[in-house]
Amino acid sequence: MRFRLKAFGLHLAGSAAALTLVLGAFWLGWYRWPGWYLASVLHVVGIVVLVDLVLGPTLTLIVANPGKRRTKLARDIAIIVAVQLIALGYAGVTLWQGRPLYYTFSADRLELVQASDLKLDDILAGRRENPALAPYWYSLPRWIWAPLPENPQEAKRIAMGTVLGGTDVIQMPRYFRPWAQGLPGLREQLRTVDEMQSFGRGERQALKSRIAQRGLPEGQANAMIMWGGSRRVLAVFDLKTLMIQALLRAD
């Protein structure tokens, strides 16, 4: 039994180290709050944790028979490790493709933009026309303003295309502008929590409670919803500086 437990412990330690390295890099680089929540990646993390920290070491505990030939034991453990690496690779590719690249303000809303939301043509156009704010493989999440272009025909084309399911301006890096330039327009879109009908009554009450718990001003038009797929958080701003004071879940 000691041999089995030793093999289990070594396998668990190795798996934990590899998982911490990969997931830690993604969290530190791209998935800090609210990125992991808005991008809905917990199911991916859950799968790889189950395979790498539970299933893999447990199978090693089962197959690590001290009476088994070492070549056969090595083969069995190699198969287990291969499955773990496949799971870890799946998680890495999924997290990379869905990594948050931008938190955008456009028109009347805040919205997350993930790498998978951007088409190659729009990325290349952004690198040609707006290299400072275009995405690159090493880009970390940035807060930007994404206004419609000044050309009325182009702005109309984008707006109509968005309604019909086409590419939105928040997916066109060539039009991105620094976050600070959009703050005057952002100020005009701030609302009180009670005005946000996208949240249910219970959610609004929960948000007001969390605002009070943090000692933030209550009842002011100082907030905006940030969207990310089917999830959303409430961004609370300081009305003097327009710095974000909190990003709060409603659930």
Provide a descriptive summary of the structure in words:
- The protein has 251 residues and is α/β, with parallel strands linked by helices.
- The chain has three domains: 2-97, no CATH class; 99-185, no CATH class; 190-251, no CATH class.
- 49% of the residues lie in helices and 15% in strands.
- It contains eight helices and seven strands, in the order H-H-H-H-E-E-H-E-H-E-H-H-E-E-E.
- Strands 4-3-1-2-5-6-7 form a seven-stranded mixed β-sheet, with helices on both faces.
- A hairpin with a 2-residue loop joins strand 5 (223-228) and strand 6.
- The longest helix has 28 residues, at 2-29.
- It is elongated.
- The two termini are 46 Å apart.
Number of strands: 7
The ordered string of helix (H) and strand (E) elements is HHHHEEHEHEHHEEE
What is the radius of gyration? 23 Å
Q: What is the structural class?
A: alpha/beta
Largest sheet: 7 strands, mixed
Described by the principal axes of the CA atoms, the overall outline is elongated
Extract low-pLDDT stretches. none
Number of individual domains: 3
Biggest β-sheet: strands ordered side by side in the sheet: 4-3-1-2-5-6-7
Give a brief rundown of this model.
This protein is of the alpha/beta class and 251 residues long.
Search tags:
single chain, 3 domains, seven-stranded mixed beta sheet, alpha/beta
